[in-house]
Known about the structure:
Order of helices and strands: HHHHEHEHHEEHEEEEEH
CATH architecture of the largest domain: 3-Layer(aba) Sandwich
Strand content: 5-15%
Strand order of the largest sheet: 3-2-1-4-5-7-6
Structural class: alpha/beta
CATH class of the largest domain: Alpha Beta
Mean pLDDT: 87
Radius of gyration: 19 Å
Number of domains: 2
CATH superfamily of the largest domain: Vaccinia Virus protein VP39
Largest sheet: 7 strands, mixed
Distance between the termini: 33 Å
Helix content: 40-55%
Number of strands: 9
Amino acid sequence: xxxxxxxxxxxxxxxxxxxxxxxxxxxxxxxxxxxxxxxxxxxxxxxxxxxxxxxxxxxxxxxxxxxxxxxxxxxxxxxxxxxxxxxxxxxxxxxxxxxxxxxxxxxxxxxxxxxxxxxxxxxxxxxxxxxxxxxxxxxxxxxxxxxxxxxxxxxxxxxxxxxxxxxxxxxxxxxxxxxxxxxxxxxxxxxxxxxxxxxxxxxxxxxxxxxxxxxxxxxxxxxxxxxxxxxxxxxxxxxxxxxxxxxxxxxxxxxxxxxxxxxxxxxxxxxxxxxxxxxxxxxxxxxxxxxxxxxxxxxxxxxxxxxxxxxxx
Length: 313
């Protein structure tokens, strides 16, 4: 327990520092604290955040919100800088985590290709933000004929994002930006063969499940849902998707990176047979969660594989 106790103590100290900051906008102090937090959480650690004391879990929930706010501010900051160039996409390496997004894009493309052999005509990315690097990386390096529909609730985020691709004739035709709450999108969701859900859409468990249930209700049967989760100590930085949160989807695999790519990747397929949910609190008709056969979500030999980035790449 020593290593786990040290980690929790250190994360709590970081949380206290971040809570006292007047602003989470990029600065020398903010960058230094977040760098330390990431370095602390990236190495493999057997910690199970759901089994930690209630006060630590409450701290983690607040820390994830702080990380989400800081990430949004950082992306807006760099998107504005990149947008000042005549050709913004030629300068993406100015963003400190650009390499991570290239690796994550390669990883997600490899996973998608294993379970969806066709080239999708249309992809939706929900929560694309002011710096839609996943869409850009996939559109330029892997899916060069696919149209990407980027959804974000924040008009200023979409304004910054669209200015990044406007100078690129090919990409500006294939990158569409929608300023709307995804919970109000219904029929359009049936048009997408693949839907990506960003890690910070629904920063608490209940909000994320509401979005997933909405997608289960409106996505086309057989369509693919790609989600980002977290594992081990990385769950202090991002929300965790439990396979049985994905009611209405067949969970195909979960991949846990072991390098600087922080997010785990979950891939699921929309099922076709509707059933009544047993969860009367949410009500309605939902599709079956096929992960009910999985006793230990991250074990080998079940429906869900656990592979590292190195094995996939």
